[in-house]
Amino acid sequence: MNNEYEILSHLEKNKDMSQRQIASRTLRYILTPGGMTEKTRLAYQYLKASYGQIIKISRAVDEVVAAHQAARAEQFNSKYNVVNILEIL
User: Fold this and answer.
1) How many domains does the chain have?
2) Does any domain span residue 18?
């Protein structure tokens, strides 16, 4: 019962939400237009930041892979340069 009181108190203080009691033990709330605007703004900011991090990490991985491939190619070229290949033939 104490949790229900805390939830109702929180909903009462937060003017972006309104409360509806559906059954004796079920509590649901409905967002007001202002509350929906705020939730949408927060969700947009979260998604924008998340995708920004994904892009940043993807670019960093691409740079590491490219550097590794370049090092391997240089290692291969120094080991098997054209002169060495002609000597083998």
Assistant:
1) 1
2) yes
Write the pLDDT tens digit of every residue in 5-22. Answer: 666 676 666 665 555 555
Query: CA 87 to CA 89: how far, in whole Å?
Result: 5
Beta partners for residue 20, in sequence order: 28
Residue pointed to by tokens 């079920």: 26
Q: What is the pTM of this model?
A: 0.49
Q: Strand locations in 1-89, DSSP E?
A: 17-21, 27-31
Average model confidence (pLDDT) across the chain: 76
For the four alpha carbons of 75, 79, 82 and 88, in that order, the dihedral sign comes to negative
Residue 43 lies in a domain: no
Q: Which position has the higher pLDDT, 21 or 49? A: 49
C-beta separation of 29 from 18 below 8 A:
yes
Contact 28, 22 (CB under 8 A): yes
